[in-house]
Design brief:
By secondary structure, this protein is α+β, with helices and mostly antiparallel strands. It contains 8 helices and 8 strands; from the N terminus they run H-H-H-E-E-H-H-H-E-H-H-E-E-E-E-E. 38% of the residues lie in helices and 24% in strands. A hairpin with a 4-residue loop joins strand 6 (180-187) and strand 7 (192-197). Helix 2 packs across helix 3 and helix 4 (67-83) packs antiparallel against helix 5.
Length: 230
């Protein structure tokens, strides 16, 4: 494996690697570029006698996260950073950069867009926190997938007074008023932007219908005052 060789060898030129692996120098250069995109710290010494090597502090064969798992972790990091907590923030930036570096440019852009769709509000009132419940796992999974894929959801929603309704919503943004999560969405039933508490979603199903992201300004009216307690 190229990564293992680069970590073990203190001096290895692109030409030497090409000869050892029976490929062109162009192929080796392309592979090195791909490894850098995946976040590997590859150092290069220029000039005569120069070579390439993998930083010895870089772990080869580390944990391999699936895209959805990496997105979950990145969203968690984004939330921690936006909450501006003084605890554990020193290393979060480095972790985020390494995770993002492991993505292709296309997925990197998707992750950046996801981060911009997460909003942090003030801490929820004691009244709201007392009434909070843990949403069903299947609802959370469907919401997560629909949010990432920009896909509409059919939900069964329970209002504060206990009345339930069937809704078709577009989950444009997520809002955290710690510890309560809200979905900032376009509600097809009301034909306007609305904000829904995630823990009041009793059921959720993806529809397969994609939507175009609307700017945050379109949802400002639904984020004012007691509307968040709907």
């Amino acid at each position: 494996m190229l990564a293992v060789q680069l970590k073990q060898d203190t001096h290895c030129t692109v030409k030497d690697l090409a000869l050892q692996h029976g490929v062109s120098t162009r192929t080796i250069a392309r592979d090195l570029s791909l490894m850098r995109e995946q976040g590997m710290q590859i150092d290069a010494d220029r000039g005569r006698g120069g070579g390439v090597r993998l930083d010895r502090n870089w772990g080869v064969g580390r944990m391999n996260l699936a895209y959805a798992e990496a997105v979950d972790l990145l969203i968690s990091i984004a939330v921690a950073e936006q909450m501006n907590s003084p605890m554990f923030l020193a290393s979060l930036g480095s972790v985020r950069r390494q995770l993002v570096a492991s993505f292709s440019p296309e997925k990197r852009n998707k992750v950046n867009r996801l981060n911009s769709r997460i909003m942090i509000g003030v801490t929820a009132s004691t009244y709201v926190q007392v009434s909070a419940n843990t949403p069903p796992k299947r609802v959370v999974q469907a919401l997560h997938q629909a949010f990432v894929a920009q896909e509409s959801l059919e939900i069964r929603y329970q209002r504060e007074d206990g009345e339930t309704s069937e809704r078709s919503i577009e989950p444009h943004y997520l809002l955290l008023k710690y510890p309560i999560w809200y979905v900032v969405a376009f509600d097809h039933l009301r034909q306007c932007p609305r904000t829904f508490r995630c823990d009041r979603m009793l059921a959720a199903k993806m529809t397969g219908t994609h939507f175009q992201l609307l700017p945050k300004e379109e949802f400002r009216p639904s984020l004012v005052g007691d509307d968040l307690l709907m």
